[in-house]
Design brief:
535 residues; alpha/beta; 43% helix; 4 domains; 15 helices; Hect, E3 ligase catalytic domain fold; Rossmann fold; 17 strands; 5-stranded parallel sheet
């Protein structure tokens, strides 16, 4: 802040001085210049600026998620007569936001004045001139935004991240670098990202550990101990690491705002969460399989309650009521004068709302359910279990590898898809070269026929992908054998982690009074989900 000069009238009208430094590089007017202009204005007009001045550094004017809102609130509270800015554009550049918040300021009896634009907004002509200046400011903002969007689109089209900068696991070669032989000058080169031979393996380990269940906080600490830092040189934290990993850059991808989303991403403060991934020009550090594992883990984690992420019991997060299909949670009970934590599983809906949601409900001792699940694991891991499946299902008529057949069929359909894409391109080229050869509606009919074939082709491939990725029980036998053998020697958290890999859920259904009249069913991963029809 500049030294605070004394005005001729220290008891003058109190005003709030507001300074905003734009994110637009061409308009980064220094805060010192704005402050000097405001203090000169105060001395010239006999106003008194309240200390300290309100400052927003590197803040966009396209929204009002700024400290200016606090200044307006202070005027509404009678603390100040109005708000003074260097130029009216410092107040904001969003048409709707300016109109709304300026009206709010004036309703409270406050005023907005510019230190460098001598306009009396109490007159019709003054308000008209001020509106023109706000319109020009909005136009300049729109023009700058369009330029940035064009630049970002160009970078994405060339496989580069929109904002550039360093990325963990990569060596960044920027477009412009200092010339070591001529100080003050630069050398232009092709911007690119190359894998860092030192940090790259750590990034692969990072994704592997996260896919295996490690938390972002522990992984952040691990990265920091290895000496890795963010692109700005800061220590890694759970939130910054989550954003980096979700972006998918080490998988050779770029995360962008979904073009089909109709929102104004910038005006919304970048809070829209509709993202898609596109291919980047850089070499990936992790395999597509590891990236898919990570995405699946993140999807599962988001759908899991925070308490279930740190399981207290072996079946935490897996229990469901068979009557209402809602969660069943562990509840305490008093037995022989003692309070026993996690004594029984109870339908959560029944516990919170009685019979209004779940009429039957369920209540069963936790140890009984855990014993049933352990016996199920032993049965599934036993030799020859295919002869006695865990749930009635048709016996296979012949032993075939359906996944291999699906893979072959999908390869055939992919070849057909490539031919259809080529046919559509050829049709467009031929029509452009020979427009007179096509009668009314002929081109459209041919185009629509190819597109219909493409839709059928995609639907068929999607069905085959489901078959191709369907797990087999045999894939899980080694895991179940280890789980069965080590059950008594594992912690609850370890048991829960392994059970989640083989079971969709554990369903308890009341069939009568008492725990012995409760049926326990396990829905395995490798069988069709019997609750797939659940809304």
């Amino acid at each position: 802040m500049l030294p605070q000069p004394r005005t001729a009238d220290d008891d003058g009208e109190p005003w709030i001085g507001y300074i905003r430094v734009s994110t637009w590089r061409e308009e980064k007017i220094s805060p010192e210049l704005q402050e000097a202009s405001l203090r000169t204005w105060a001395a010239r007009t006999g106003r008194r600026l309240l200390e300290p001045l309100v400052i927003d550094l590197d803040a966009t004017g396209r929204n009002f998620k700024r400290r200016i809102m606090g200044a307006i609130h202070r005027v509404e509270g009678g603390e100040a007569r109005g708000i003074a800015v260097w130029k009216f554009s410092r107040f904001g550049r969003d048409r709707a936001g300016v109109a709304l918040n300026l009206a709010r300021l004036e309703r409270a009896g406050g005023r907005l004045e510019s230190a460098t634009e001598d306009i009396d907004a109490t007159t019709d002509v003054g308000r008209f001139n001020r509106d023109i200046l706000f319109a020009v400011a909005a136009f300049e903002s729109d023009r700058a935004g369009t330029q940035w969007k064009d630049a970002h689109q160009w970078r994405r089209a060339h496989g580069l991240p929109a904002t550039g900068g360093m990325r963990l696991g990569y060596i960044w070669h920027p477009r412009k670098r200092p010339d070591p032989k001529q100080p003050g000058k630069f050398i232009l080169q092709e911007e690119r990202y190359e894998p860092d031979p030192k940090a790259g393996p750590d990034v692969e380990t990072l994704y592997t550990r996260k896919a295996n269940g490690d938390g972002f906080a522990s992984l952040s600490a691990w990265l920091n101990t290895l000496g890795h830092r963010t692109g700005t040189g800061a220590l890694w934290q759970a939130e910054s690491l989550r954003r980096m990993m979700d972006a998918g850059f080490p998988a050779g991808l770029l995360r962008i705002h979904d073009p089909s989303c109709g929102c104004d991403y910038t005006a919304n403060g970048g809070n829209c969460t509709r993202w898609i991934h596109i291919d980047g020009a850089h070499e990936p550090l992790i395999t597509p399989e590891l990236w898919e594992r990570y995405e699946e883990h993140r999807k599962t984690t988001k759908a899991t309650t925070p308490r279930a992420r740190r399981p207290v019991y072996p079946l935490t997060g897996l229990m469901r009521c068979g009557a209402c299909r809602g969660d069943a949670s562990a509840n305490s009970a008093r037995r022989k004068g003692q309070q026993i934590r996690g004594y029984a599983y109870m339908c959560g809906a029944r516990g919170h709302a009685g019979k209004t949601i779940c009429e039957l409900g369920v209540w069963v001792q936790r140890l009984i359910v855990e014993d049933e699940v352990r016996m199920w694991v032993a049965r599934e891991a036993a030799p020859g279990i295919d002869a006695t499946p865990s749930a009635p299902r048709p016996e296979p008529t012949h032993a075939v590898d359906e996944r291999a057949i699906a893979a072959r069929d999908r390869a055939r359909l992919q070849a057909e898809a490539d031919k259809l894409s080529a046919a559509l391109v050829n049709l467009r080229v031929d029509r452009a070269a020979n427009p007179d050869e096509y009668g009314p509606g002929e081109y459209e009919a041919a185009r629509d026929r190819i597109r219909e074939q493409q839709r059928s082709n995609r639907a068929a491939m999607e069905r085959l992908v489901v078959v191709e990725t369907t797990p087999h029980r045999a894939d899980y036998v080694p895991l179940m054998l280890d789980l069965n053998d080590a059950w008594d020697h594992m912690t609850y958290q370890e048991l829960n982690s392994l059970l989640r890999q083989i079971a969709r859920r554990v369903v308890i259904t009341r069939e009568g009074r008492g725990s012995d009249r409760t049926r326990v069913d396990v829905h395995p991963i490798w069988e069709p989900d019997p609750w797939a029809d659940q809304a």
